[in-house]
Amino acid sequence: MHGYSDAFADSICTYGSGGVNSLFSNSAGLFILGTIMFGLVLFALVSILIMYMASRNSRLKTQAIPEEPTSNEAMEILRKRYATGEISTKELRSKRDDLR
């Protein structure tokens, strides 16, 4: 036929002893492969959950209430409110004393 001996053809088809086919030829090999696959899927799911929680936490921090204005900023706001007539001179002095 093609010039190959039967022994050579048999060795190609079975990959020899301890080859690829022997890993899946018993239930222990399938158990090991299944365990590895389960571990990889579990690792991926836990990683995705951790990344989701971290991004959710960072989004909540950016939506947090802004910081209180400093006394300089508060005084500037008081001056603007006084200039527009929102507060009286008495209120301006009272709030300015509260800030000091």
Tell me what you see in this structure.
It is a single chain. With 100 residues, the protein is an all-alpha fold. The chain has a domain at 67-100. It has five helices and no strands. The radius of gyration is 38 Å and the shape is rod-shaped.
Let me know the largest β-sheet. none
Radius of gyration: 38 Å
- According to DSSP, the number of beta strands is 0
Overall morphology: rod-shaped
Helix amount: over 70%
pLDDT < 50 stretches: none
C-alpha termini separation: 105 Å
Individual helix count: 5
Would you kindly provide a brief summary of this structure?
With 100 residues, this protein is mainly alpha-helical. Helix content is 73%, strand content 0%.
How are the elements arranged and paired?
Blueprint: H1 6-14, H2 20-23, H3 27-62, H4 71-83, H5 89-99
Helix pairs in contact: 4-5
Keywords:
mainly alpha, 73% helix
